[in-house]
Q: What sequence folds into this?
């Protein structure tokens, strides 16, 4: 897992270089078909990449988007009418039967289908009309790291190009990620706090694009350290789950520079009122009157920030596992490729 | 909270009787406009009603559907192109500013808009072109109970009528709910297990329509008892979060009779392999070779079962709170109407 976290700058640079032509061709094929509605299908870590893409589609393209409920088809046998729909299926392995079945059925029901995978020969890549290879190389650790950030970048490149962009904003991504890979020591305080007894439960929160970071950070902590990690959007947190936060519940808020940051201020204020120990990962001025615990490198737009933001949480998850004596490469109950129906 | 849980059969019977004409008129107005995509907007408990409606729309109407990310508009200032879209906004109070703003903007962007609320005079009801009143009467407890089941029934009646149904399948709902209201004692074992020390973390799981029950049950446990309750679809659970389940992690699986039940079998088998203490709420034959812990009353279709299934979890949440010495009517950090932007 540590090797794959460290490999991310090279993986992202490789995708920017070697993947650009393929992504551009797929983006042009999509733009030509002018979809009016976008559905995203994924599971686990890739579902967080899909959530990221949902925001991009809505904000950059002004198209309504939704996440697929695979059981509509696999349990209830229904394929909706998908004319004018683009289905984007995201999966590291490209082999979960429910996603393959959904993608094939969606294609039959009139959708334009795109698979975003790390496996060009996979069933999912074959089932979809178009394919984007995230080119992350073989991933061995059960907890996905480099395939997640490669999926995010591939989805950004795809949607940016579809929206008429030239992809230039992504050039600083590998260096920003490399900087955070090199700052593992800064996450030790967080790891120590999370690994202590009262840290058996932890809450991650963010809004907008960074919501994907909160969800993926929570999943990493669950997978590698068995922590009861919850992720909610800042707004959803205030609508009920806030009650679980007590004076000994560690909270991690991800608040990069950008338009979602002001919407997190009332959330941070409420968490402070409740006495929660809050760690802020984000912009230097994320929280008025307080210094940010882990400052993200400047130079990335809010859209691209999730590709970097997740790195400190990957390190924290790994280090919590090591402090707790858990092997982060072999979590209990999990295997690298999960088949669900 | 106890009074409102017990009031549900009367609330549901009243909605079936007094609400039918209004629901039919709204359903006909929707059918006339022939929307091609459906978006649902909600927060907290109402978001679980929205998830339920998403399955109904996909399965009964064969239309693609998605849950709205309100921050697209409120943080990023973008309203997608919503021609041919039906937006359904669900909110007990009808007063959260983000939902009101989204609904008004969606209406301006070409969507047909419907508000489903317990407050006919609310800003949300005014902002939407059409309104369905769930007629649950004033709800005083912070943890929503009767407004949740009334929202589910109102959404079922609306979508059933839109799909050409006559609503008859819902007639047994009040009696089924009344039966479960009367079986509070049966949830005491579950409440005792959840209230014990190792019960600080609990996992709820289900698939298909019952996914809404797992999510809402988890939220009730968080709101009233501050338990770290997680809800995942059975399939998503296997894609990572399963790692948090250990031999002392209580799991509640909701498995009613129906087409999703077979998809839960491999999930139950994996949970048993991991030694987790699993409580099954559902059909008598939900798990091969084992008796179901809490058997749901017969006579409801799988579609309508969530309106009844939630009752044992409402009782359990209330009784865990009482056992832990927490006042379930006044959870820390929460108020009845939550305003988010």
A:
């Amino acid at each position: 897992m540590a090797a794959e976290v460290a490999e991310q700058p090279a993986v992202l640079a490789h995708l920017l270089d070697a993947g650009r032509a393929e992504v551009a061709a797929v983006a042009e094929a999509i733009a030509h078909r002018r979809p009016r509605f976008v559905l995203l299908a994924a599971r686990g870590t890739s579902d967080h990449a899909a959530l990221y893409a949902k925001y991009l589609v809505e904000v950059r393209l002004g198209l309504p988007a939704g996440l697929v409920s695979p059981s509509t088809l696999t349990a209830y046998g229904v394929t909706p009418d998908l004319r004018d729909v683009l289905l984007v299926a995201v999966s590291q392995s490209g082999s979960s039967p429910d996603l393959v079945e959904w993608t094939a059925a969606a294609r039959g029901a009139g959708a334009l289908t795109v698979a975003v995978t790390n496996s060009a020969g996979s069933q999912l890549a074959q089932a979809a009309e178009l394919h984007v290879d995230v080119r992350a190389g073989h991933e061995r650790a059960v907890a996905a790291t480099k395939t997640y950030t490669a999926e995010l970048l591939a989805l950004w490149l795809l949607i940016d190009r579809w929206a008429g962009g030239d992809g230039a904003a992504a050039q600083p991504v590998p260096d920003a990620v490399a900087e955070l890979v090199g700052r593992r020591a800064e996450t030790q305080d967080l790891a120590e706090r999370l690994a202590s007894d009262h840290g058996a439960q932890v809450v991650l929160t963010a809004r907008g694009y960074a919501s994907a970071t909160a969800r993926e950070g929570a999943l990493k902590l669950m997978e590698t350290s068995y922590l009861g990690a919850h992720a909610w959007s800042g707004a959803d947190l205030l609508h009920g789950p806030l009650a679980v936060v007590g004076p000994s519940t560690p909270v991690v808020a991800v608040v990069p520079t950008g338009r979602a940051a002001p919407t997190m201020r009332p959330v941070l204020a409420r968490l402070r009122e409740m006495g929660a120990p809050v760690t802020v990962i984000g912009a230097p001025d994320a929280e008025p009157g307080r210094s940010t615990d882990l400052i993200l490198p400047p130079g990335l737009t809010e859209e691209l920030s999730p590709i970097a933001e997740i790195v400190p949480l990957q390190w924290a998850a790994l280090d919590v596992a090591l402090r707790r004596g858990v092997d982060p490469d072999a979590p209990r109950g999990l295997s690298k490729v999960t088949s669900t129906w």
Remarks:
- The first strand of chain A starts at residue 37 and ends at 41.
- The radius of gyration of chain A is 19 Å.
- Residues 24 and 153 of chain A are 13 Å apart (CA to CA).
- The beta strands of chain A are 37-41, 65-67, 85-91, 112-117, 130-133, 201-206, 228-233, 251-255, 278-282, 294-295.
